[in-house]
Amino acid sequence: MKTRRLQSAFTLVEVLVALFVVALGMSALMAALTAAANATAQLREKSFAEWVALNRLSEVRLKGVVPASGKSDGEAEFAGQKWRWQQEITDPKIAGILRIDISVSAAGDRSGAAVATATGFYGTSIAAPTGYLPDWSAAPAEGPAPTPPGLTPGSAR
What we know:
By secondary structure, the chain is α+β, with helices and mostly antiparallel strands. The protein has one domain (12-123): GSPII I/J protein-like (Pantoate--beta-alanine Ligase, Chain: A,domain 2, 2-Layer Sandwich), CATH 3.30.1300.30. It is built from 1 helix and 4 strands. Strands 1-2-3-4 form a 4-stranded antiparallel β-sheet, covered by helices on one side.
């Protein structure tokens, strides 16, 4: 009686099919990683653009003068990148209120498509107490904050 030996080796076709399956899996993994990296970069750019818009809105509010209605634009540098902003100030027909719309795009973007927009309002009926203009550029002093003229510490405005 002869015993037959079984060979337990892979054929060339089986090896090629296995390599094809691995290649498909690796390409799907690379596509998913690329999509995640692109989404992260877009979210980062959108977050920076929103911060530029909100910073511009704060600048308009803190100037201390009522902004003129109309459109204006400019550039700002933020996070090592140049940004282009466009703002439009309109009267929404509500007494004492101005609407400020600011859209921001990357300065190098030729399409000019806004990456982010911010809308805020400026109250024209609100004013600082007479004779008191805060010095925003001064370093904070130690101790309690200065009290505006005509107010006592702890009193409501």
